Amino acid sequence: MLATLTLHELLLGILVSLILIFLFIIGLLLYSFREYRSHANRQQWKEQIEAYLLEQLMLGPVDELQLDSKLQALMRQENFRRFFLGLLIASERKFSGAAIQTLLKIYDGYSLDQEAYNLLRSRSSHLIARGIQALTVMQDRQALPEIEQKINHYHPQVVQEVQYAMVSFKGFDGLAFMDQLDSVLSDWQQLRILNSITALPTDGIDRLRSWLNSSNESGQVLCLKLIRKFQLLALHEDLFTLLGTGSAKLHEEVIKTIFSIEQSYSSTRLLAYFHQANKREQLAIMTGLGDSRALDQISFLKQQLTQNTDESLKIKSVETLVTLGQMNYLFELQRQLHLEDPTLHILNHTLQHKYE
Questions:
Q1: How far is it, in rounded angstroms, from Cα 223 to Cα 190?
Q2: Which class for 145: exposed (0-12), middle (13-18), buried (19 or more C-beta within 10 A)?
Q3: Which residue has the higher pLDDT, 258 or 63?
Q4: Based on the structure, what is the number of domains in the chain?
Q5: Is the N or the C terminus of the chain less surrounded, counting Cβ atoms within 10 Å?
Q6: Is residue 140 exposed (0-12), middle (13-18) or buried (19+ Cβ within 10 Å)?
Q7: d(CA 27, CA 254)
Q8: 39 Cβ partners below 8 Å, 6+ apart?
Q9: What is the average per-residue pLDDT within 323-345?
Q10: Considering the domain boundaries, does residue 316 fall inside one?
């Protein structure tokens, strides 16, 4: 027998639905009001903090920091402390010299180091990373042992901040994590690390050689960039062994590095590898010949232009020959080639594009 819905049950169902909708609307309004208040508070805090920072920076170095009573009162709120710390970090990146010392005094004067440590010791990966970032930017060297303990953290953002902190505090020696690197170093991370290393220790070349032979390709690329930065000629021969392993991207970095620390035989050895290289590597070699002003390899480039059937390699040949000042040859070749010759079309198009 089918159950029938009474009028009372129907009205009760409608009433419950209306109550749920009403509660949902109330919750949404409360959330919106809370977000509005939070945004308004942050805007007000931002104005107060920025005005205070500007005043202190205008005063210049002082023996004793002037604390603001209104800011001190707000320091009882966790959200304000974190907001203050974030603005201080952002300000530190914009200044240098005496201004940095003033910002560090503010950091200590308002005990923001304690908030940074609280973030470091939290359970949230995002907050831990923020804590490490704050302690690093504010040059809190005493925090390094505790920061280093998180080098094997499960979250990559935390690991990246630990790596950067180690290098920021220790320079090249901070690259000790490279001995057991099992994660990928992003291009941004590599750039941050490169900018933080200003000198090499006496064993730097041996350690770079060891990392070049690792299985972590992003670590190998970082080593290649360090070799270029410090012009480490002693590692020139080691680079050729990398051409037999790894990806095309790694090989491009290797070729770029070989040309960067070029020896008299570099281009000759790269040309011996040229025919077994893939197209991206071949293009990188041609680019390097132009950048290094390899006038002794002009005949090779002419051969690639006239005999190679690959259009992109022909175009790169023309561009490199232009870089090497071979315009007379290219104009003469234009006159000699038949109209139906595809090389003439490529030559005309490339030269026209080059001089637009």
A1: 10
A2: exposed
A3: 258
A4: 1
A5: N
A6: buried
A7: 59
A8: none
A9: 90
A10: no
> Which tens digit of pLDDT belongs to each residue from 106-125?
999 999 999 999 999 999 99
| Number of residues in the chain | 356
Residue listed under structure tokens 């240098």 = 96
Across 147-174, b (16+ Cβ under 10 Å) vs e yields bbebeebeeeebbbbbbbbbbbbbebeb
Q: What is the DSSP string of 156-179?
A: HHHHHHHHHHHHHHHGGGGGGGGG
Indicate whether 308 belongs to any domain.
no
Paired tokens of 193 = 């690390």
Q: 338: number of CA atoms within 13 Å, CB side?
A: 3
pLDDT at 37: 61
Q: Give residue 1's identity as a one-letter amino acid code.
A: M
Residue 55's alpha-carbon distances to 81, 98, 222, in angstroms, are 19, 14, 42
Query: Which H helix or E strand runs over 330?
Result: helix 327-336
- The 10s digit of each residue's pLDDT in 189-204 is 999 999 999 999 999 9
Q: Which residues contact 343 (CB under 8 A, 6 or more apart)?
A: 305, 306, 314, 337
**Amino acid at residue number 296:** D
Rg (CA), the chain: 31
- Separation CA 356–CA 192 (nearest Å): 37
Q: Would you say residue 1 has pLDDT above 50?
A: no
Domain that holds residue 136: 54-60+76-199
* Within-domain flag for 134: yes
* 14: amino acid identity, one letter: I
Amino acid occupying residue 34: R
Q: How far apart are CA 185 and CA 222, in angstroms?
A: 8
Q: How many CA atoms lie within 13 A of 279 on its CB side?
A: 9
